Amino acid sequence: MSTVFESVAAARPRIHRDVLFTAAHDGVLFHNSGGGFKITSPSAYRLASLLVPVLDGRRTVAELCAKLPDPQRAMVGELVSALLSRSFARDVPTDEVDPATVLGAAVAKRFASQIGYLDHYAAGAPRRFAAFRDSTAVVVGSGPIAHMCAVSLIRNGMARVAIVGDSDGAAAAEAAELDATGVPSAVLDWRPAGDEPTWADLAGADIVLVAGGDGAARLTHRLLAAGVPEGKTLVPAWTFGRWAIVGPAGGTDRRGCWYCAMLRLSANDSTPAAAEVWRGVAVAGAPPAGPAGPTGPLASMIGNLLAFEVFRLTTGALPAETDGKVTVQDLESLDVVSEQLSPHPRCVYCRQEPTPIALDAAALDAAPQQPPGPDAATDAAAAQLSARDGLVQPHTGIFRRYDDEDWDQTPVKIGTVLLTDPAGRRRRVSAFDVHHVVGARTRALARAAVAYADQLGAGAGSVGAVTGTSLVTGRPVEVRRAAVEPFGTANADRLVEPTAAGAGAGFDPAAAVRDGLASALAFVALRGAIAGALPSRVPLDTCDDDAELRFLTRSAANLGTTVELLDLGASVPAGVHALLARCTEPRSGEKLWTIAADPSWRTAAVRALCDLVGQVQLRQQSTDPQATDGTDPVLVDYHPDTLAVAGTAAARTAADGRWQQVLAGLAEAGTDVVLVPIGGSDLPAGGLFTVRVVLQERSRG
């Protein structure tokens, strides 16, 4: 007997309701909305025609094949195995009960469609539906959204729905009709003790739905500020300018809250919508100044959506669209989008401190696994970037969107990210890559993360010294807060240079630390060169043996400028190379410069030259001749021509080292390397880590 048949003989397969099968010239094609597969055999279609109608989960494969000979059993086994492995069918547990046993015959018959819908997605459909039916939802509101929400809840099987507000009677009529057919249903009229309901008034509800209206935002904020009681869930539907928002769900162990959503929406919106919402929150009964709320079919859509979210939350068969998310509907175009919502670092209700980073220094030199071939490597980089799409969203994203479609992308690639930093400044942060836009966007996202996290520092509202981790000893070390937050109030007296140097970001902690350590060392090298350790000029013709360096120098010439590459080896710590590239922008005559450091001379040179060429290209393609990359300065008001040069030094493209050697050299010189995570928990949750690396004398630790 076939081993495949034996592996599925005890299964009770139930084929999903969205699966179709079609005859092919050499077999049968199974497909659904997500894809399909083909079974090649002359008799495959006939077998599917006979088998699919009985794949209802009531009998095992062995029972279905009891009278079949072995060859046909093997074919059935192959077909069932293919369906199960591709999630076109599922194995029904033996303990799954009949819906009538759990719900009663009348309820099971009346809501067979809803139970079948749940069964399509998950096991235990009768019990899941019972959880929805036995929950009590209270709909707070008097408008059309509230009316349709209550009707939809009753119509889809919830036994008890309470209403706080004026009702149009439709939900009560629906409940009476169901009750008359033996399906117990009730609509309750709850009256709060005061003008607005409190949690004491809503004590009998499992889920509280704030269903639109002019006071929806105010009531949601009041209930949130009072604290959502254990075991209860708060789901609001409210308006923000021209958008209707459903969510986020508030309650124990929920991700994000209404206040987080307001902070994100306010940062990403350029209209007065946020001010209008906050005015309504602060002043009871304030007349709305924005567009009228949803009415007619649009209000019905939102009410149904709110009710369906209750169905998701209580049954668990489908991921809730408001748990760590919001649904945004454009009131003009009716377009709907679901966006992730990360807890905001400045939320007063669910703020979380920066995520601690535990890192072994050896991880800095660990080479990432690269798939073979350039195309595979690019695809892998694109997949990594796509995995962080939740960070870049137009409404509730930490970053609003990529804004690089209009660049010519030659000679180097430009990635640009739009964001509003925590200080309220709208910024366009750009970065550059020699090879592809994916690389440029990856670097731009990292730079934007630094710009965002640097404004938050090591902990919102914290004062005093910051505790970091030494990369040299692995022990906790105290660092002056001004050194960790150079753009914050702790550095108002300019105890340290206000600089972006030392701040780094990456898709993993090691990448973030490498980025931060490289910029910190580049800053040390620059300060040393300014103090008198003069750099050497690198003749560009000595770079011609390297394809990327040759491309960058020639690209600069094609843009009408001549770059100068300076080796800051005289002022750089042992084991690292720092290079400064400078030029005159041909149109404005402004002096531009970039700096990079790395254990590899070539890597530092490519980075410095690529960033400089990108700066020139950015200005020539932008409508603003003074356009910058939008990042914070490495050294404020520095003019690159003030740096004198002492002699020349040939390119050292073969000079390559390791970060552990750099750390050893710093330790030998008495310098500690202290790692401090900055920002909040929102970036790491999305797969982007931000740190600040502080270099200080070991005696301070």
From TrEMBL:
InterPro entries named among the record's database cross-references: Bacteriocin_synth_cyclodeHase, NAD(P)-bd_dom_sf, YcaO-like_dom
PROSITE patterns, sorted: YCAO (PS51664)
YcaO domain span: 375-701
Lineage: superkingdom: Bacteria
Identification of the protein by name: Bacteriocin biosynthesis cyclodehydratase domain-containing protein
